[in-house]
């Protein structure tokens, strides 16, 4: 009698049991889909469905271009967090990061203590510390003299002795520019964020580097990384380009800027993407709801947490104080706001 194919639920149960026995205090790469499908004697379609369940559970993470990994075991009982003073509670990056971190803490029964950046007297120097955002040099110096195990979820170009995990902002800007060129856009505008933030600085640099020597006509509007800045940029575009050719493509430093821009251009009856294509960055939930859907780059916070815990385990459990810089990919998400001309 021919064996019945395994249901997705059964595949998930079998995989979960196997993966839990393989977990360590660091990220462990699993076999490629093709190999797993052969080992379990299931279709790759059924396997992908089961893998998605385990990714949603937090047992697995997928790294673009690298494969699928088992998330690390929590060898830490407590974690401390310091948040930069300019990060607002509604900041999309911080909100998504904290939600994913909280989910992991709950699953692994790890305690979290949050401290203000200028009042760290109650913090423990031996418990691992996560820095979120950009702190000034004086505060960083104080933190380095106080804490033994530090990881920053931020790029600190001048602090080689701090482990850092962040998304590859330079590549985001570079790929955005390359997409515009691939889609035949030559009149291009960048709505950039403040240069003091490494994320916006490197997105701008990558974007301009990719366009250098291509013959593209490039202009720039700098501003804050919020909806209002995007809306005001739309006003500037309408005013400054009135009577002459407008840009056919715009790259914004983040999605909120792009959504504000779309709002203003739509009010002015400028058709998107027929007249102007737009690419944003960070794939906030509203990016796929706005009309037209926003082409952007997605931050995988499950991947970020997996790398973060792996580094913290290495520092805290294995006493490895060698600093690391880990750049994470940000997958390109194509939606309706970008077309070829």
Walk me through what this model shows.
This protein is α/β, with parallel strands linked by helices and about 350 residues long. It folds into 3 domains: about 60 residues, Arc Repressor Mutant, subunit A; about 120 residues, Response regulator (Rossmann fold); about 130 residues, Rossmann fold (3-Layer(aba) Sandwich), CATH 3.40.50.2300. About 40% of the residues lie in helices and about 20% in strands. The protein is built from 10 helices and 15 strands. The strands form 4 sheets. A 6-stranded parallel β-sheet has the order 5-4-6-7-8-14, with helices on one face. The protein has a 4-stranded parallel β-sheet with strand order 10-9-11-12, sandwiched between helices. A 3-stranded antiparallel β-sheet has the order 1-3-2. Helix 4 links the parallel strand 4 and strand 5. The termini are far apart. The N terminus is likely disordered.
């Amino acid at each position: 009698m021919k064996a019945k194919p395994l249901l997705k639920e059964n595949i998930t149960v079998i995989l979960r049991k196997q993966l839990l026995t393989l977990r360590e205090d660091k990220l462990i790469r699993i076999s490629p889909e093709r190999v797993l499908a052969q080992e379990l004697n299931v279709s790759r379609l059924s396997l992908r469905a089961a893998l998605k369940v385990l990714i949603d559970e937090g047992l697995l993470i997928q790294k673009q271009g690298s494969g699928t990994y088992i998330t690390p075991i929590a060898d830490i009982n407590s974690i401390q967090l310091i948040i930069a003073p300019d990060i607002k509670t509604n900041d999309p990056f911080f909100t998504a990061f904290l939600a994913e971190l909280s989910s992991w803490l709950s699953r692994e029964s790890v305690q979290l203590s949050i401290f203000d950046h200028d009042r760290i007297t109650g913090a423990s120097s031996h418990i691992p510390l996560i820095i979120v955002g950009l702190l000034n040099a004086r505060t960083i110096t104080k933190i380095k003299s106080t804490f033994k195990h530090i990881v920053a979820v931020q790029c600190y170009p001048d602090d080689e002795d701090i482990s850092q995990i962040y998304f590859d902002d330079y590549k985001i800007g570079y790929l955005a520019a390359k997409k515009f060129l691939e889609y035949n856009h030559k009149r291009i505008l960048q709505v950039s964020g403040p240069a003091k933030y490494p994320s916006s600085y490197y997105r701008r640099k990558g974007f301009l580097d990719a366009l250098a020597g291509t013959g593209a006509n490039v202009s720039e509007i700098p501003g804050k990384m919020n909806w209002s800045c995007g809306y005001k940029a739309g006003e500037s575009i309408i005013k400054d380009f009135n009577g002459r050719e407008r840009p056919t493509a715009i790259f914004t430093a983040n999605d909120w800027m792009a959504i504000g821009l779309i709002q203003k251009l739509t009010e002015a009856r400028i058709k998107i993407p027929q007249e102007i294509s737009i690419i944003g960055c960070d794939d906030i939930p509203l990016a796929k709801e706005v009309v037209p859907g926003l082409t952007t780059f997605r931050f995988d916070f499950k991947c970020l947490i997996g790398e973060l815990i792996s580094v913290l385990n290495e520092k805290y459990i294995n006493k490895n104080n060698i600093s690391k810089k880990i750049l994470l990919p940000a997958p390109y998400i194509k939606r309706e706001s970008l077309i070829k001309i």
